[in-house]
């Protein structure tokens, strides 16, 4: 079995595309309009993708507080400096649950926790 994508229902499609493209670093792969008022954009750099779904009929999305998406980076310090230069707030300090992994959190435009992870 292969994991295909994670769907995130978003409030503002363009704002979310900018975040996942310019902050996370994912490339836009395809854009679809399935039914009137619903637009979908897939972003990713490999097999696994993030699907952004914007439904104009939904006024406010509901993101779970205990859900996060993790993206691996080469250097947490470099990523933190990049995010600060873009005015994106860091939600935590660097967390290191074991010697092999460390990470920090930011929030996407919809309040979803995004982890940037450095593997040792």
TrEMBL record:
Entry coiled-coil feature ranges: none
Pfam families: Glyoxalase
PROSITE patterns xrefs: VOC
Domain VOC: 2-119
SUPFAM superfamilies the UniProt entry points to: Glyoxalase/Bleomycin resistance protein/Dihydroxybiphenyl dioxygenase
InterPro entries reported in the protein's UniProt record: Glyas_Bleomycin-R_OHBP_Dase (IPR029068), Glyas_Fos-R_dOase_dom (IPR004360), VOC_core (IPR037523)
Protein name: VOC family protein
Biological source species: Mobilitalea sibirica
């Amino acid at each position: 079995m292969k994991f295909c994508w994670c769907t995130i229902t978003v409030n503002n499609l363009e704002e979310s595309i900018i975040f996942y493209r310019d902050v996370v670093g994912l490339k836009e792969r395809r854009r679809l309009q399935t039914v009137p008022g619903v637009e979908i954009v897939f972003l990713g750099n490999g097999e696994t993708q993030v699907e952004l779904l914007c439904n104009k009929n939904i006024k406010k999305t509901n993101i779970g507080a205990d859900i996060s998406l993790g993206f691996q980076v080469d250097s947490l310090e470099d990523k933190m400096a990049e995010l600060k230069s873009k005015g994106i707030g860091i939600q935590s300090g660097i967390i290191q649950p074991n010697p092999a992994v460390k990470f920090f959190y930011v929030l996407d435009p919809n309040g979803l926790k995004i982890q940037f992870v450095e593997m040792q």
